[in-house]
Amino acid sequence: MWFYLCYILRVSITIPSSLNSIIQGMNMEGLSGKVIIITGASEGIGRALALALAPLGCKLVLSARNESRLLSLAHEVASQGHEPFVFAADVTSKSQCQQLIDTSIEHFGRLDILVNNAGMTMWSKFDALIELDILERLMKVNYLGPAYLTHAALPELKKNQGQVVIVASVAGLTGVPTRSGYAASKHAVIGFFDSLRIELADDNVAVTTICPDFVVSEIHKRALDGQGQPLGESPMEESKILTAQECAKMMVPVISSRGRLLITSMRGRLGRLVKLFAPRLIDKIARKAIAAGH
């Protein structure tokens, strides 16, 4: 029973360093030579993930709207592994999503893993929200974008028995004050990919959901306020939250092992269980986390 609880909560168990190195090496072997598309790769988690995957022999497609940042990242990736392919695209455009998939397959000859990472957020109480179009924008980027890309990629992923990775959020597992529209979009994307996982089981296409807690990223500075304008500075106490590099390091073995779910924080893992029998407590924890900024 104790071991099962540790597994559910991912409690750290001391493992000799030599054995841990062997386990980590085995976990990473599955990624060598894989063609992987990463959206939202120009900064934050996407950028950190690209740099974490590059030394493992992956063939990376780097995509985001900002081409200059992608080209800068491509130089760093190339210095550690294969020359990446850069394709600037907006995930809210169905045609650009299709072009990204088609061009990537044409360039590398195949596609093995699609990492849906591009995202945006908000920071406003709902009753202070003046520009309601924010809700639509959040859904387009955080939910419809991954749906468009995944639909375009499925024929190739089915052929190769590949994998879809969705970077969701702990806000997709529970409500978060001042993030209502963001939480809604992440709840939607988790429900969508949970459903898709079942549909794709017979095709042996894995679906991996990543639920980060707060991570140091430019996404917080670009979070939209009630009038639809970027905040300009992060409201988070960044010294007390996970770095993008730490998050990427946690993601790599889960992606390599074709795991089902990663929740990056203990409070996120505990919250998922506690919500079943003490939902008011989870509301208080969410309110306190936003007030404290970490």
From TrEMBL:
Organism: Shewanella violacea (strain JCM 10179 / CIP 106290 / LMG 19151 / DSS12)
The protein, known as: Oxidoreductase, short chain dehydrogenase/reductase family
One Pfam family recorded for the sequence: adh_short
NCBIfam families in UniProt: PRK06181.1
Keywords: Oxidoreductase
One GO MF term attached to the UniProt entry: oxidoreductase activity
Keyword Cell wall biogenesis/degradation: no
Family of this protein: Belongs to the short-chain dehydrogenases/reductases (SDR) family.
